[in-house]
Amino acid sequence: MADPRDLFDLTGRVAVVTGASGGLGRRSAEVLSAAGAKVIAIARRESDLQSLVADMGQGAHVAADVTDRDGFADLVSRIEAPFGAPDIVVHAAGINTRQSADEVTRDGWDQTLDLNLSAPFFLSQALVPAMKQKGWGRIVNFASLQTTRAFPGGIAYGASKAGVGQMTRAMAEAWSSDGITANAIGPGFFPTELTQAVFDDPDRSARNAAQTCVGRNGRLEDIDGPLLFLCSDASAYVTGQVLMVDGGFTAK
Predict the structure, then answer these.
(1) CA distance 184 to 167
(2) Pure H helices in 57-179
(3) Pick from 37, 36, 63: nearest CA to 49
């Protein structure tokens, strides 16, 4: 029997992480790099990407807007330039405009759906052909508590994240027979830019923690194991799933 720890070894793999300039995206890039992958970090803030690559000690970065579909051919070329075609893509880029149903604007709606839902699909679609040639690939989307729950001020965000859940299942149906698994992580409340308003309110933060089974909100390191599992050989027979990493928030 092979060493089970080898199942999580990403040595020789190439991984792309969007939204890598901060929060769970940055953490994802760091974890995959520590597990041996060559990571290409993507975001719009180049200075943050440069500091990330410096901290990782290896890897590369691409400053780009992943909602620019007309620029995808160029983006894929830039992604493949440092290490070749990627084996893993983690879609961590996201936005939450926090507009109530009565206040949602067309621009806010389109911006949310473009970044949270359309970009993960079209970037995956562009990277899948090379994964098919290798017979191995991992797609990890980011779902949310709002994939299945309705929160105040979250109609556009919730619609996009509910779409991520179904998109993940549809990706699995389309591509898993070629050795490409597609899964999603659904984080609970983690301290990121998107949830800064929540953590700035001690009472609200405490109420959220009390709604979990564990009794606390998430810490960045809580994403490490689930992400590594879904990006590695350990999850070879897992596809089309949304893994909630929420301390049991959705279990109550």
Answers:
(1) 10
(2) 72-83, 106-113, 119-134, 155-175
(3) 63
Predicted local distance difference test score (pLDDT) of residue 171: 99
The catalytically annotated residue of 157, 175, 190, 249 is 157
Average pLDDT, the chain: 96
Q: What is the CATH number of the domain that holds 35?
A: 3.40.50.720
- Residue 242 and residue 244: Cα distance in Å, rounded? 6
What's the pLDDT tens digit per position in 150-193? 999 999 999 999 999 999 999 999 999 999 999 999 999 998 87
- Would the CA dihedral through 175, 44, 77, 30 be positive or negative? negative
Assigned token pair, 135 = 């017979």
Is the pLDDT assigned to residue 247 strictly greater than 90? yes
Active-site annotation holds for 237? no
The structural domain count of the chain equals 1
**Phi, psi (degrees; rounded to nearest 5) at 7:** -60, -25
pLDDT tens digit sequence for 60-101: 999 999 999 999 999 999 999 999 999 999 999 999 999 999
| Residue 144 domain boundaries | 4-251
User: What is the C-alpha R_g of the chain?
Assistant: 17
Q: Name the pTM for this structure.
A: 0.96
Burial status of residue 205 (CB atoms within 10 A of its CB: 0-12, 13-18, 19 or more): middle
